[in-house]
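Researcher: Quick test of sequence recovery. C-alpha cells follow.
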C-alpha cells in the first residue's frame, strides 16, 4: 500500500475517533480505568493528527484537509467498482489497475481518496 494512503487511513481513523469522543465523552467507568479526562484524550488525538497531517505531501494534505473539514470523510472504500463516498462507479481503467492501493487514487466524481477493499 502507498505510504501516503496508509497515512490517510490512519488519519481518518483518528478523526473518526475524535468525533466519537466529542459526541460521547468517555464514560465515568472508562475515565476511572484509564485516568484520562475527555479533554486530555482530545488533546492527545489532536497532537497526533497534527503530526500525521504534517507528514502528508502538500497536494495530498490540502485535499485531505478540505474534505475532512467539509464532507467528514476524505478517504472512502471502493467496493465492486463503486465509490462509497458518493456511490458513483469509479472509472474502470483505474478500477482494473493492478496493485491499486499502491498509488493514490481519487474519485472522479466526488474527489475523495479511494482505497480498495475487495
Ligand atoms: Zn466518489
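Model:
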Amino acid at each position: 500500500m502507498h505510504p501516503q494512503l496508509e497515512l490517510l487511513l490512519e488519519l481518518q481513523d483518528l478523526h473518526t475517533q475524535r468525533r466519537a469522543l466529542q459526541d460521547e465523552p468517555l464514560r465515568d467507568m472508562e475515565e476511572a480505568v484509564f485516568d484520562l479526562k475527555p479533554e486530555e484524550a482530545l488533546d492527545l488525538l489532536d497532537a497526533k493528527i497534527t503530526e500525521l497531517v504534517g507528514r502528508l505531501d502538500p497536494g495530498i494534505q490540502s485535499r485531505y484537509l478540505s474534505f475532512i473539514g467539509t464532507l467528514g470523510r476524505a478517504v472512502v472504500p471502493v467496493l465492486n467498482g463503486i465509490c462509497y463516498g458518493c456511490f458513483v462507479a469509479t472509472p474502470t481503467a483505474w478500477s482494473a489497475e493492478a496493485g491499486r492501493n499502491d498509488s493514490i487514487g481519487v474519485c472522479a466524481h466526488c474527489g475523495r481518496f479511494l482505497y480498495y477493499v475487495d
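The first helix runs from residue 3 to 23.
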